Amino acid sequence: MGIERETGNGRADIIMRRNDPRYPNIVVELKKSRSKTDIFNTMEKEARKALTQIKTKEYYLGMKGKTYLYGVCFQNKKAKVLFEEMDL
Questions:
Q1: In whole angstroms, what separates CA 46 from the centre of its chain?
Q2: Are 81 and 47 in contact (CB under 8 A)?
């Protein structure tokens, strides 16, 4: 798998394109939460924004086959991960 880093509204985008059809493509958008209150609700919203950003900016263009999208928000040692599967 190849790894690329994208710049955008998030902390980092990680794109792993499969070289072998037995494995999926993986696209990850990371967001860092700076919220001091209502951390879990804020993290859910930020993870959803990350997943939406992947789809809006179509980071998966040119990929074929099974593709996993991960929207991740983290703060310190806490993380919220949202996941979608696409078949391109």
A1: 11
A2: yes
pLDDT digits 0-9 by tens, 12-50:
589 999 999 999 999 999 999 888 888 878 999 999 999
Q: How far apart are CA 86 and CA 75, in angstroms?
A: 27
pTM of the entire predicted model:
0.81
CA atoms within 13 Å, Cβ hemisphere of 24: 14
Q: Can you spell out the DSSP letters for 9-74?
A: SSSEEEEEE-SSTTS-EEEEEEEE---SSSHHHHHHHHHHHHHHHHHHTTTTTT--SEEEEEEEEE
